[in-house]
């Protein structure tokens, strides 16, 4: 027979598991509850009182400020405060959020907020931090102690408002609705449809070690060593051997290199989108294609087919040797061994 106390314990455990599974619904408000634009002299404070948490499992918490979505169900773009796990620090970020029946931040096993841009990815802020669109038109992120963590530096440039677009672009605009500043120009490690990687710009990992860039002859991925180590490149044969106004853009079906906005000169094939996609340059050098609603988000790796596992500069860590997709330590010299694996169970960590 199950004792009364044991029965209570079982009921409590079941209740906790049930509520934990649906804790994401704490802020399941409709899109209409949120603005997609903001005017000058507006301030947002990073706390749960002003902006209730929307928690996704035990890993992600968001506090949305502006939200813009096209459909009643599917993904929307939002900007706001974003944190992971213990939430000791927050990013001001643009992220995708799930919508179902017009309600935001609903429970899903596969759909978690995905950060596609952040202002302060290496300079997190704490609870109590503020984001302010000043009366002078500057968008300023300050930590809880008042220290400026990031700014658009747009004071005195005739800004009249802030807009979160349905393509995931955060825009400061003037009275003529012309763009003064936009997040699409402030590249991080991610490219979304409609965003262009222009010549002279770079996708760059958070540690600054891996970049993807476009030049007058094609595009390449490289590790920022001295000298730089190019591990993937596409070069274009062009009548003048120099591309005019080149840029890289993710379109439905390819990551394409354009010239003059019309001509595709080269491309990497991409699975056609069934929902919102983006590419992200990983710390390991992999260029991943991600899609909303896909388990773990990752659809495919765009470069491995061409360069193989051993083509990545960090495939086997700092000193490891990659051969045939397997990692090993450098051979000993005269009986003396100077290298050993960092972890025998994870040879890709190197020696």
Could you list some keywords that capture this structure?
mainly beta; 3 domains; 6-stranded antiparallel sheet; 351 residues; Agglutinin, subunit A; single chain; 2 helices; 4-stranded antiparallel sheet
Q: Can you describe what's shown?
A:
With 351 residues, the protein is mainly β. The chain folds into 3 domains: 21-183, Bulb-type lectin domain (Agglutinin, subunit A); 187-311, Bulb-type lectin domain (Agglutinin, subunit A, Orthogonal Prism), CATH 2.90.10; 316-351, no CATH class. The chain is built from 2 helices and 28 strands. The protein has helices at residues 4-21, 304-307, and strands at residues 37-39, 42-45, 54-56, 60-68, 74-84, 91-100, 103-104, 114-118, 130-133, 139-142, 148-151, 159-164, 170-174, 179-182, 190-191, 196-198, 202-204, 210-215, 218-223, 229-235, 246-251, 254-259, 263-269, 277-281, 287-291, 298-301, 321-323, 326-328. Strands 3, 4, 5, 6, 7 and 8 form a 6-stranded antiparallel sheet that branches. The longest helix has 18 residues, at 4-21.
């Amino acid at each position: 027979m199950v004792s009364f106390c044991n029965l209570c314990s079982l009921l409590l455990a079941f209740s906790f598991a049930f509520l934990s599974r649906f804790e994401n619904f704490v802020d399941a408000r409709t899109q209409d509850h949120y603005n997609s634009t903001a005017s000058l002299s507006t301030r947002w404070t990073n706390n749960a009182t002003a902006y209730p948490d929307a928690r996704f499992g035990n890993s992600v918490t968001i506090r949305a400020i502006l939200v813009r979505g096209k459909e009643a169900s599917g993904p929307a773009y939002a900007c706001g405060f974003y944190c992971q796990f213990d939430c000791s620090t927050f990013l001001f970020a643009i992220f995708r959020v799930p919508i179902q029946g017009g309600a935001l931040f609903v429970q899903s096993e596969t759909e978690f907020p995905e950060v596609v841009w952040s202002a302060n990815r290496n300079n997190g802020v704490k609870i109590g931090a503020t984001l302010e669109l000043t009366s002078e038109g500057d968008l300023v992120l300050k930590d809880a102690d008042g220290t400026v963590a990031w700014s658009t530096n747009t004071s005195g440039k005739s800004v009249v408002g802030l807009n979160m677009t349905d393509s995931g672009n955060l825009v400061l605009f003037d009275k003529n609705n012309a763009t003064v500043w936009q997040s699409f120009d402030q590249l991080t490690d991610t490219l979304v449809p409609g965003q262009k990687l222009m010549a002279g710009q770079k996708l760059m990992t958070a540690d600054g070690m891996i970049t993807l860039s476009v030049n007058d002859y094609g595009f390449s991925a490289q590790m920022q060593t001295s000298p730089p180590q190019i591990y993937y490149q596409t070069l274009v044969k062009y009548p003048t051997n120099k591309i005019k106004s080149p840029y890289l853009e993710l379109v439905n079906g390819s990551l394409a290199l354009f010239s003059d906005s019309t001509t595709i000169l080269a491309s990497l094939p991409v699975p056609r989108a069934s929902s919102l996609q983006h590419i992200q340059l990983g710390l390991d050098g992999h260029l991943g294609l991600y899609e909303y609603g896909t388990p773990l988000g990752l659809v495919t790796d765009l470069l491995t087919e061409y360069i193989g596992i051993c083509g990545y500069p960090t495939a086997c860590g700092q000193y490891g040797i990659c051969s045939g997709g397997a990692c090993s330590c450098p051979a000993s010299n005269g009986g003396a061994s100077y290298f050993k694996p960092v972890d025998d169970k994870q040879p890709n960590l190197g020696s």
